[in-house]
Amino acid sequence: MDRFRPLALLTAAALTLPGLTALSSAARAADADLARNGGFEAGLDGWTCTAGTTVNSPVRSGDSALQATPAGADNARCAQTVTVRPDSQYTLSGYVRGSYVHLGASGTGTTDVSTWTQSAPGWQQLTTAFRTGPATTRVTIYTHGWYGTGAYHADDITLVGPGGDTAQPPAAPTGLKTGAVTASTVALSWSPVPGATGYAVYRDGAKAQTVTGTSATIGGLSPATAYRFQVAAENEAGESARSATVTATTTEGPDGGGTDLPAHALVGYLHASFANGSGYTRLADVPDSWDVIDLAFGEPTSVTSGDIRFERCPATECPNVESDADFKAAIKAKQAAGKKVLISIGGQNGQVQLTTTAARDTFVTSVSKIIDEYGLDGLDIDFEGHSLALNADDTDFKNPRTPVIVNLISALKTLKARYGDAFVLTMAPETFFVQLGYQYYGTGPWGGQDPRAGAYLPVIHALRDDLTLLHVQDYNSGPIMGLDNQYHSMGGADFHIAMTDMLLTGFPVAGDASNVFPPLRPDQIAIGMPASANAGNGHVPPAEVTRTLDCLTKKTDCGSYATHGTWPGLRGLMTWSINWDRYGGWEFQRTFDGYFG
What are the Fibronectin type-III domain coordinates in residue numbering (predicted)? Predict the structure, then answer.
């Protein structure tokens, strides 16, 4: 869319050298092992694990060790947050067994670190080091396995360095109560606790969410099911005791899934970091018709850094821009009204290439920081241009090998796991990266094709169970061959019908009938259209929007293209952009409202 050096350890011999004894003794006296229950002798005390338990065999020392088993989209992460001293050096170490076992630290305030082993049939020591930032007082250490691999074991995890300042955790929260309850969500609120910097919400004894305010909505719940909730207050010293328990039972029947979207949703991009000919639109002025609002854009500090920043439009460019406080208040107001507000990464000018695991981890950290700062509901991936391209040896969309693809998939899975089932994940690829894959995939058998052809397919496929919405940009596109083996061009309903039918039917990749990209669910699909002729090539008038929806949801007025099904559960429409629709008198919004009511 437009627009480490390891920590040097002194040897025993070195300690006897003149002039070194006093310095070394002082350094050793200041250092301590800060990891709590690193040998797992007290069960999982101090650790928060998504899929972990303690076992008596195998153990590296003592009587217990951690065993954790990745499953599906869960990499079996176990973590604890440790109080540290700013601008200080730390060494993280542990022993692991298994395949693809990782040990790392996040929230360091400098460069987050991790180390891993591909295969450790016996106990293998992993060690890494980091220096905390000038304001860092808490660091999270963790271990995890990898998706689809077997159980791993960990034992004797240590974090050696200067101890943090002694402080007391806050008091336990009071006043916990339930609010609105749906088939998949429960709203909670509680009284503020003095000295708390955040709150951890527990569902049936497991941590479900961490927030900075005194309310939360827990999603991903099953209909007609009773759940128990508690909340604990947090500060730099740790976590309080948990509150009294409240119970809530979800309602009957589906209500849009864990992300709680309406059956038919209108998605729009809001120019939040720039202005153009459409003018700046304040978030509070976005009409209630818009169910998902994508803040455009978060962009990288450099193409390969993975460091995403979201800079709001300056007043010199957007004279009517609201203050940060008003912007954040508008986000909360939209969410209170049932809307989802996401950060969109990329756009025409935001090329993102996660070529290394370091860039991947930086991406996760920086995107999380944006989401947490603004209290957002999720993330939209709008990688364009040369962000994604396939290496010549990468020929199977089900088993990608290209680093920028593999690292993006890993980063998105990590973010989804971090924020839980209610995290909204959307993607806005161009047709070149998706439907063109019916004819061409990567460089092709002779190596002469554009390596970007179909490059989004492995990302979509790997994340299809986590993906909330796919809204391909059916604009700024060249002719694309549909499943009728005819080329379809922008400008009318036929193009949208053919492109959407491919997503809902599935298609052979590069013409290989034995290698089919499976269909997505209709509730995962929104059709991307320009809001007006000014917004981009491929705009269609309201009558063609209506004909597109009639054909796909009712199989009427389909024209020359014969669809392969009827999908009344099609989620809805996406447009570039809310600003351009306002510029055009809200024509796109009115068309959607008129059709779905």
Answer: 172-253
